[in-house]
């Protein structure tokens, strides 16, 4: 006989919905609760329910039984209380429920199936029948039959509360978990075989620890997440609410459509908001979260209670959800709708786990080290860490710096950015960078080839260092017996020379290579390189002057380069000379003279009188012998350093190089810094052509295609092609590094400030010099000019040699000024500059260039105005005129009052208005000025509310000179 679904549901003690879902699970197509189902189906469904509920029951019961009663201990005593309620559904005698319990126990005792199959069908009627069977099994039960379930000592712990409780608390007519068949259902529960399985219809599902749950669970309103969820334990079967009678059985269809309603705002990830379906507000607690992303995930917006530690709330809980769905399979009905594919969910997850930095979503790093070359761009960094360069630009923008993706970025900026993204940025040092480059060509720089037997002694290379005017050049001059001082512009050594001299020590002729480094502060960089490229430093200290700032600086360079020092105490011919004082002073800096028990050799010399020179040379040789192993392999491709380079009009680029190891020969293919070429000719320090330059020999090399930088290393390579490749790579790297260094970075704040002022000011320069050293020194000195942020200086090009037409056209195009240092224009460059209005400045002294540039920069500053009060007049009387309006009859009490000048009206010390003097009269005459002590009449522009005793103060804005 056909029955309607709701009728059968009622009969079975289920909700129509539950029954519908069961039917669907069985493959029966039933549209709604009022649909009819045929008898065979009714039978099938009853059987199914009976079968399933039997083993699962125990767990389901506790789920609500426990909470219903305050304590599980109350289970047994509470059991009796259950009686009255249980019967109700059974719609029969109150005694019936009691027998139901025995039935439960009986069922498992014998294979549950038969008992169940019989029992569920007729709830009320069969219960009594079952009772007798059960009763004997519970003979020692409490006197009350209701307690019969308890006799089963084997009942699992969880089932205890359930056993007693299941039936009792239920206010609803449906007693047992499944089917309201007290007997069968409960019996099944008692079996104590909790099924963790994934049968969605089993009312147990091992969820015995369920908390009291208000109806409507799963709607997101429930405060009480499940305890297991909190621990992050996987949810068995995902049965959110298995078999809780009186509530709809959860199934995927009941889950919220949207996978992550808690992802509010797109930025707050998951957080507490989690999936409301699982108790919404409760959030997905931390256990399952991803602490790694906690930083940005935060507790999320969605949920009130998401524990902060939850961080990336979407943890296992989230996945539990999908697991649940999996467990339910399709049985849950229309769950498929709106569900996201695995791929979608993965993408979503990936997206979520990327935190936002400055509003940009970027996957965070893992703290690993990223090596970048100097002057790397954001694109380079992006490539290494696999993100979009544009997002890095945006991050940096949000950090307050504006750079584009391909622009060279300063090291510190890269490091800050790296730290923000959780990477350690390691900017490769120039040395490492170069070594790596050479290694890529299978070249090893800096090591002698071969073994000990291949090494031969070489002369020490010596750098002379010291304070300005302490006599470095004069001393070298004396040693070489030449005189270069006379030719110097401004009296400062501005080029580097290297010379080799010979001296006799212990009857042996020993050679020493001297490198003359300039003494001016501006050449610090070159001097530092000089110290590094040599073996021993001779520190020149004038005996009459003592230790000076640059003496210390030079000393520190030498120490940093771990170069032994020999002190030349110069100018001892002078009366004021105090060599002992110099020794004492230097002792304080760690240079203890040998005679005082130290290990530094001090030699008193006089460059002018040429005394002590031999002793100095001997001291150099002895120091070298004592502390250095000066040997090199002369039979290998030469390697060394370019000490100085310049562009010679007739000979092209000329580089003075010092060979460190190997022997340089004419015809060798060499690369020096970013210059390359083939050695066309070599000239020694005597001006003679040589064909070979062994270790420690300085020579001028001709044949390079461009001018190398002072301090650049040089090496002989296999062929011209390799030389060119290395040079090109070096050049591009240098350019990037230079760009990062010289481009003045503007922060947003600065930019906004400047934009507010209406313009940004930048002085662009093109530097041309006679040698690489001087151009470098000039650029460094110019970079040191500090006149604040309002104007900036940018060197857009630099080079060695004459000012060319190319330079002029670049200057014209970029509105730059050309600075020529010891160079002049070439060809039609002057005419071009004149017609294009390009400013070319010529200098031979570095200071003059610095001063001019500084003045130019200051000239670009906006004028500063300050107010200057010119006079004050007191209003003594007020006249009204139909022609002039209100006239103030005044006495000038200070300074003078001029017509049209700016004025302010002051009443009782308070400025009433600011205006200007519209008319000024003495007697009846218009005047331009009235001085102190005179009376006058005046009117104020657009203001007539004047009173006697008011003071009119006139002032003007005067341009103020900048400091
Ligand atoms: N009386 C005396 N004067 C000396 C001696 N050595 C150098 N001078 C003078 O000191 C001045 C500076 O000498 P330089 O050799 O140009 O000094 P420097 O250290 O090379 O100077 P910069 O090139 O500017 O760094 C010159 O006027 C020299 O004549 C010396 O031994 N005795």
TrEMBL record:
What are the UniProt keywords, alphabetically? Cytoplasm, GTP-binding, Initiation factor, Nucleotide-binding, Protein biosynthesis
Residue intervals passing through the bilayer = none
UniProt subcellular location = Cytoplasm
Location, primary (coarse class)? cytoplasm
Give start-end positions of Basic residues composition bias: 336-345
Q: What is this protein called?
A: Translation initiation factor IF-2
Identify the stretch annotated as signal peptide in this record.
none
Give the GO molecular function terms: GTP binding; GTPase activity; translation initiation factor activity
Which organism does this record belong to? Micropruina glycogenica
Q: Region Disordered: which residues? A: 49-368
Q: Where is the composition biased (Low complexity)?
A: 53-95, 101-145, 155-167, 224-244
- Gly residues: bias regions: 262-332
Question: Lineage in the entry?
Answer: Bacteria, Bacillati, Actinomycetota, Actinomycetes, Propionibacteriales
The residues that the entry says bind GTP are: 466-473, 516-520, 570-573
What this chain does, per the record? Answer: One of the essential components for the initiation of protein synthesis. Protects formylmethionyl-tRNA from spontaneous hydrolysis and promotes its binding to the 30S ribosomal subunits. Also involved in the hydrolysis of GTP during the formation of the 70S ribosomal complex.
Q: Does the keyword Glycosyltransferase apply?
A: no
């Amino acid at each position: 006989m056909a029955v309607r679904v709701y009728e059968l549901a009622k009969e079975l003690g289920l909700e129509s919905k539950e029954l519908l879902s069961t039917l669907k699970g069985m493959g029966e197509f039933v549209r709604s609760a009022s649909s009819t189902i045929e008898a065979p189906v009714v039978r099938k469904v009853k059987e199914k329910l009976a079968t399933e509920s039997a083993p699962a029951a125990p767990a389901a019961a506790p789920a609500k039984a426990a909470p219903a009663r305050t304590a599980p201990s109350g289970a047994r005593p509470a059991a009796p209380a259950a009686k009255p309620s249980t019967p109700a559904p059974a719609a029969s005698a109150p005694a019936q429920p009691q027998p139901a319990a025995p039935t439960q126990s009986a069922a498992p005792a014998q294979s549950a199936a038969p008992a169940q199959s019989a029992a569920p069908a007729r709830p009320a009627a069969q219960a009594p029948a079952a009772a007798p069977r059960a009763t004997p099994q519970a003979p020692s039960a409490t006197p009350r039959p209701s307690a019969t379930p308890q006799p089963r000592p084997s009942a699992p712990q969880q089932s205890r509360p359930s056993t007693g409780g299941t039936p009792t608390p239920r206010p609803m007519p449906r007693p047992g978990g499944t089917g309201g068949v007290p007997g069968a259902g409960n019996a099944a529960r008692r079996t104590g075989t909790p099924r963790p399985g994934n049968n969605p219809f089993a009312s147990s599902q091992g969820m015995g620890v369920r908390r009291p749950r208000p109806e409507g669970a799963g709607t997101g309103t429930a405060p009480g997440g499940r305890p297991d969820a909190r621990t992050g334990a996987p949810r068995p079967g995902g049965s959110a609410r298995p078999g809780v009678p009186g509530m709809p059985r959860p199934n995927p269809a009941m889950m919220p459509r949207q996978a992550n309603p808690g992802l509010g705002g797109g930025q707050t990830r998951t957080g507490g908001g989690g999936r409301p379906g699982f108790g919404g507000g409760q959030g997905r607690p931390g256990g399952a979260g991803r602490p790694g992303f906690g930083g940005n995930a935060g507790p999320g917006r969605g949920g009130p209670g998401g524990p902060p530690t939850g961080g990336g709330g979407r943890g296992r809980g989230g996945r539990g959800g999908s697991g649940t769905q999996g467990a339910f399979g399709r049985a849950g009905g229309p769950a498929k709708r709106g569900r996201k594919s695995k791929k979608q969910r993965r993408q979503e997850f990936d997206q979520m786990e990327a935190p936002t930095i400055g509003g940009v979503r970027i996957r965070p790093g893992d703290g690993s080290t990223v090596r970048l070359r100097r002057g790397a761009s954001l694109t380079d960094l992006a490539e290494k860490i696999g993100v979009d360069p544009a997002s890095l630009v945006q991050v940096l923008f949000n950090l307050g710096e504006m750079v584009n993706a391909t622009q060279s970025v300063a090291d510190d900026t890269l490091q800050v950015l790296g730290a923000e993204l959780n990477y350690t940025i390691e900017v490769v040092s120039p040395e490492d960078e170069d070594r790596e480059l050479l290694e890529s060509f299978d070249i090893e720089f800096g090591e002698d080839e071969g073994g000990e037997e291949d090494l031969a002694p070489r002369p020490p290379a010596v750098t002379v260092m010291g304070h300005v005017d302490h006599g470095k050049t004069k001393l070298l001059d004396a040693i070489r017996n030449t005189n270069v001082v006379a030719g110097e512009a401004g009296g400062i050594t501005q080029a580097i020379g290297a010379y080799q001299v010979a001296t006799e020590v212990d009857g042996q002729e020993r050679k020493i290579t001297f490198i003359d480094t300039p003494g001016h502060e501006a050449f610090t960089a070159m001097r530092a390189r000089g110290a590094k490229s040599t073996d021993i430093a001779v520190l020149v200290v004038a005996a009459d002057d003592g230790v000076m700032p640059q003496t210390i600086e030079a000393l520190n360079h030498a120490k940093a380069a771990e170069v032994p020092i020999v002190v030349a105490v110069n100018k001892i011919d002078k009366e004021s000379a105090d060599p002992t004082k110099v020794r004492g002073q230097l002792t304080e800096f760690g240079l203890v003279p040998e005679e005082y028990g130290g290990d530094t050799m001090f030699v008193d010399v006089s460059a002018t009188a040429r005394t002590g020179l031999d002793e100095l040379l001997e001291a150099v040789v002895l120091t070298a012998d004592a502390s250095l192993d000066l040997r090199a392999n002369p039979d290998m491709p030469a390697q060394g350093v370019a000490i100085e380079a310049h562009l010679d009009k007739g000979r092209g680029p000329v580089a003075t190089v010092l060979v460190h190891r190997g022997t340089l020969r004419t015809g060798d293919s060499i690369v020096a810094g970013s210059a390359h070429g083939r050695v066309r000719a070599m000239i020694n320090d005597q001006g003679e052509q040589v064909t070979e330059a062994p270790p420690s020999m300085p020579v001028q090399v001709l044949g390079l295609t461009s001018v190398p930088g002072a301090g650049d290393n040089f090496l002989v390579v296999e062929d011209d092609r390799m030389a060119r490749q290395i040079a090109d790579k070096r050049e591009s790297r240098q350019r990037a590094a230079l760009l990062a260094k010289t481009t003045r970075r503007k922060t947003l704040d600065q930019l906004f400030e400047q934009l507010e002022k209406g313009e940004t000011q930048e002085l662009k320069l093109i530097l041309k010099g006679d040698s690489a050293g001087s151009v470098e020194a000039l650029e460094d000195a110019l970079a040191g000019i500090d006149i604040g942020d309002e104007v900036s200086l940018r060197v857009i090009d630099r080079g060695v040699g004459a000012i060319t037409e190319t330079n002029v056209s670049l200057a014209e195009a970029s509105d730059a000024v050309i600075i020529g240092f010891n160079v002049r224009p070439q060809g039609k460059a002057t005419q071009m500059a004149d017609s294009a209005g390009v400013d070319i400045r010529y200098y031979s002294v570095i200071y003059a260039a610095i001063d001019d540039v500084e003045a130019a920069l200051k000239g670009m500053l906006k004028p500063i105005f300050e107010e200057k009060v010119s006079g004050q007049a007191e209003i003594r009387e007020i006249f009204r005129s139909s022609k002039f309006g209100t006239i103030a009859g005044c006495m000038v009490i200070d300074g003078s009052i001029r017509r049209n000048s700016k004025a302010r009206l002051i009443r009782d010390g308070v400025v009433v208005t600011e205006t200007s003097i519209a008319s000024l009269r003495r007697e009846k005459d218009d005047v331009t000025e009235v001085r102190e002590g005179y009376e006058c009449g005046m009117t104020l522009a657009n203001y007539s509310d004047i009173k006697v005793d008011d003071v009119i103060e006139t002032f003007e804005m005067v341009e103020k000179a900048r400091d």
